[in-house]
Design goal:
There is one protein chain. Helix content is 48%, strand content 21%. The chain has a three-stranded mixed β-sheet. By secondary structure, the chain is an alpha+beta fold. A hairpin with a 4-residue loop joins strand 1 and strand 2. Keywords: Membrane, Transmembrane, Transmembrane helix.
């Protein structure tokens, strides 16, 4: 019983929808060290497994008819994937934004590394 309650109240990073279509996306960007070509699909599957059970809650909360979960891998070393490019195109986000996103992830990774190396 406790697990069910926890799943329903899990917080999402991004929800994007058009009120006119009453459909949208739960988007969970995840920064990870890149390991292989299958990793973007694995992250997407992982996030779908986590957030798909929350869809009924968010459908009701935002009065939507349809939601899709997208797990979006952003490489810790600043790598962008074809999966990311396809998601951006699908959502109508200019792909020219991708270098900005990946640079921000890389800067964040460097800040974390600096913190771990030089903090007491």
């Amino acid at each position: 019983m406790y697990f069910s309650c926890h799943v329903l109240t899990r917080r999402i990073d991004i929800i994007a929808f058009k009120e006119s279509t009453r459909s949208g996306f739960i988007i969970d960007p995840t920064v990870r060290f890149e390991t292989d070509e299958e990793q973007p699909a694995e992250v997407d599957k992982e996030k779908k497994n986590i957030y798909n059970p929350t869809i009924p809650y968010y459908l009701q909360k935002y009065q939507l008819e349809e939601l899709e979960v997208i797990g979006l891998l952003v490489g810790a070393r600043g790598a962008a994937t074809l999966f990311m490019k396809d998601v951006f195109k699908r959502l109508g986000i200019p792909t020219t934004i991708i270098p900005i996103v990946t640079l921000a992830a890389f800067k964040g990774s460097i800040a974390l590394l600096k913190h771990h190396l030089y903090s007491k």
